[in-house]
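Please, structure for the following, as tokens.
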Amino acid sequence: MGKLAGRVAIITGGTRGMGSAIAELFAREGASVVIGGRDPVRGATVVGRIRARGGKAEFVAGDIAAPEANETLVAAAMERFGGVDVLVANAGRLGLGSVTETSVESWRETMATNLDAVFYLLKAGIPKMLDRGRGAVVVTGSIAAFKGFPNHAAYCASKGALIAFARQVSADYAPTIRVNVICPGPVDTPLIWDSARAFPDPSSAVADAAAATLLKRLGSPTDIANAALFLASDDSAWITGAVLTVDGGRTVG
């Protein structure tokens, strides 16, 4: 029996990178998963892989920066699988630029995706978890909450705010619901290549990011998915309000 057998999980940003790895691992561990994302083609691909292995999955297209999209995700989980046990707030946006270079529109869009959307998802999903008498929330943060990165003003600000928000929510809903944050370091996903565009030589920036870790490599989506499984499952039953840094040792030095 898997670690998430009989549970229903919603994963935002679940169509590629860390999100798809989380969705597929959760399904292998017995969860029924509802995947949120903007791209129906990528969503159908992930759902197809899960179902091909005998798992249960649904995709819901939408922009999670809108409250209604998160409400639709929760409604889909209730209608298709009968409840909500796990929320993984994983979707993210970079919004590159220094303070003076970042437009007001880009700032607001970054905050809407990285911070507001987490509020919307939890607002819609927590009541359903309370009805079940249990729940786990896993928020994807970033080491950008602790370190300044050139030309990432909005991104760093949003990820720092996520930690404060998640810790506050953990205080409100314990002991029924646990809320924890994963802060990945440099992970080999499309996002790191988007981030690298903030540097003069993107390829060198990615190579330097890997070299700057103590373990001398980029993380893989599976590294993050394994951490998310730990925090979503009963293996972490006495952990809430925590920040788990999964960064190959990048923030040590």
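The beta strands are 8-11, 32-37, 56-61, 86-89, 135-140, 177-184, 243-246. Helices lie at 17-28, 40-52, 67-81, 104-132, 153-173, 190-196, 202-211, 221-232.
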